[in-house]
Amino acid sequence: MGEWTLFSPGDHAPNDGTYIETGVNSYHMGVNNPQKVELKRGQRFPDTSNHERKWKRMGHN
């Protein structure tokens, strides 16, 4: 099984790294002023700016 790529608020971070908000339809339009967080493995993801956003690790597709 592969590693998840999108995470919801409250999920645990699988690895240390910087995570950024991404939107459901961000493939075409992007997200204006996305939040970025630095998390250690096992820390929980904070709330996003709105309910349609998820967290994604920066530098990974």
What does this structure look like?
The protein is mainly β. 7% of the residues lie in helices and 30% in strands. The chain contains one helix and four strands, in the order ββαββ. The longest helix has 4 residues, at 26-29. The mean pLDDT is 86.
Unreliable stretches covering 5 or more consecutive residues: none
Give the overall form.
globular
Say how many strands there are. 4
Strand portion: 25-35%
Strand order of the largest sheet: 1-4-2-3
Helices and strands, in order, run as EEHEE
| Radius of gyration, CA atoms, in whole angstroms | 11 Å
- Report the mean per-residue pLDDT as an integer: 86
Tell me roughly what share of residues is in helical segments: under 10%
Give a short summary of the structure.
This protein has 61 residues and is mainly beta.
Q: How does the SSE layout of this entry go?
A:
Layout: E1 6-7, E2 17-23, H1 26-29, E3 36-39, E4 53-57
Antiparallel strand pairs: 1-4, 2-3, 2-4
Key terms for this structure?
four-stranded antiparallel sheet, 61 residues, mainly beta, globular
